[in-house]
Amino acid sequence: MQWGSTGLDGAQVDFVRRTVPGATVTAIESWGLLDTVVLHVEGVEHDVTVKASGPTNTHFPRELLAHRRWTAGLVASGDTGALRTADEDLHVLVLDRVPGHLALGTDDEHSPDVHRQAGTLLRRFHDQHAVRDDGFLRAETAKATAALSSPHRIPAAAADRARRLLERSEPGPATVVPTHGDWHPRNWIVDQGRLRAIDFGRFALRPPAADLTRLAVLHWQHEPELERAFLDGYGDDPREPDAWRWLQLREAVGTAVWAFTVGDERFERQGHSMLADALSAFD
Fold first, then answer.
1. Together in a domain, 106 and 91
2. Domain total in the chain
3. Per residue in 51-71, pLDDT tens?
4. Which of 53, 117, 262, 275 has CA 20 to 30 A from 21's CA?
5. Which long-range contacts (CB under 8 A, 24 or more apart) does 19-24 make?
6. pLDDT at site 14
7. Which DSSP string corresponds to 118-144?
8. Alpha-carbon separation of residue 240 from 95, 209, 210, 245 (angstroms)
9. Are residues 162 and 195 in the same domain?
10. Boundary residue ending a domain (98, 126, 150)
11. In what order do the strands lie in the sheet with 188-191?
């Protein structure tokens, strides 16, 4: 595969070639929604994953921060790939290759054992640090409210009700921890039954329950045995009912608006479904 077909610019290609001797592109693994390019690159000594993006991409600095400050424990136990090198100006990361296949679309996506491992791994990531943040929930509420003023296709009645709820909410302080931000089988790699994690592009300090929102919508509604297995691995349930319904409301609004912005109709439909469920919790 030629470098010219990867989407990297010349400076980014030169950086990869300098830092990965004998670099050859084996596969393009991008999802195609943002300007993030993900490549499987073979080198003389080892395989790596290369992630590159444009200068305004917000996922790049989050992932770089996660690997520089928060993934060392997972790297030491072999549960994620190590950051080999990065160029902040060029927006390029070079990571050790994580062996295995994506859980998404395979039997592993629906395996209680894999979900139990996912709970155990996430708890270790969360338990590194916890701090009280007096402004987090207020900022998240303001962000969700502002999103409703952006272009979207949320039905008017649902948008109006969500806005009224958000505007009358009274966010208090929250305990925030290191969170992955997109914790579900699309970012789980399984190798001979063992789970590992990839893609920290949505990393941030958030309440721990924030990492359960994707799973709750995508799997637990229809496969409660996976929820039980996950929570068994995690050790308890970090969701407090009232805080959880507000989290689901903000997440649903953000999903529906963001998916419309990037043109992902499947994810947009999911956001609308999430919003209907979230609003029903306030009935």
1. no
2. 2
3. 999 999 999 999 999 999 999
4. 53
5. 19/84, 19/85, 19/94, 20/48, 20/50, 20/94, 21/45
6. 96
7. HHHHHHHHHTT--EEESSHHHHHHHHH
8. 36, 8, 11, 9
9. yes
10. 98
11. 101-102, 188-191, 194-197
